[in-house]
Predict the structure.
Amino acid sequence: MHRFLPILIVLLIASSPLAGDREPTPQELEQEVSRMRALTEQKKCDASCMNALGYALYRLERHQEALEAFSLAIAANPSFAVAHNNLGAVHMRLKDYPRAETAFGMAIKIDPNHIKAAYNLSVALYRQKKYLDAYKAYQHAKSIDAAYVQKRFDESGAEKELNNELKKDPENGALRVIVKGLHDEK
């Protein structure tokens, strides 16, 4: 049975409402959580399963439980870059930017081309007012997938936020460099 466990888990995840193109309902997310918890109780939940559980809990805004699930996924597979990124996303949601930075950094260390972690790292650094480091992380993310980064940047309203920060602190050299760099990219 144990040699078929990875196949079973992949099939469960692929057949779950979280795998589709549409947004799952809260009820579907709760059902997914129940399915994953049952696998956990049966000791049949590997790192991918724990990551899926964490993602469902995150979507349900059950952040502390999501942190635990992602941490268990990482404990089961320390080189699971996606779980590190997801752990960072929860820390970001909780406004724990230093821990988010650490998690995103680990994801990038494992997979230097992990675009989501690279972009998220730039945001975590920015939220800590580490502007030059944020800009370097942003540039790294753009080198991986410029279209993805531009879409996320535009959707977030980050340029407006940067300009507002610069208006509040016009003598901040790091902010001036970033705003000029972004302007020059256009």
About this structure: The chain is about 75% helix and 0% strand. The mean pLDDT is 84. The radius of gyration is 19 Å. Residues 166 and 175 are 6 Å apart (CA to CA).
